[in-house]
Amino acid sequence: MPSLKITAKRQATFPLETCQALRIGPGDIVDVEPRIIDGERVWVLLPRPAPDRSWVGCLKEQIRSEDHSMDSIRRSIAVGRHKEGR
What pTM was computed for the model? Predict the structure, then answer.
């Protein structure tokens, strides 16, 4: 049975087969939940689903400039305000 060793900083390294079984990797979050099973307290590891990041990059085709300096941003805001009549 795979086991964990806790470091002085309360960190643990999961064996490869445990990570594969849980389908987790570096940076993933695992919730730890106590449960009573057959009268005995056990701890259940629940991999937290990764957040939906499908929206990342969706505005790429809206970008008209490669310049992302503060001066460029301020000019772009000024143009937008001028178009709105502010």
Answer: 0.52
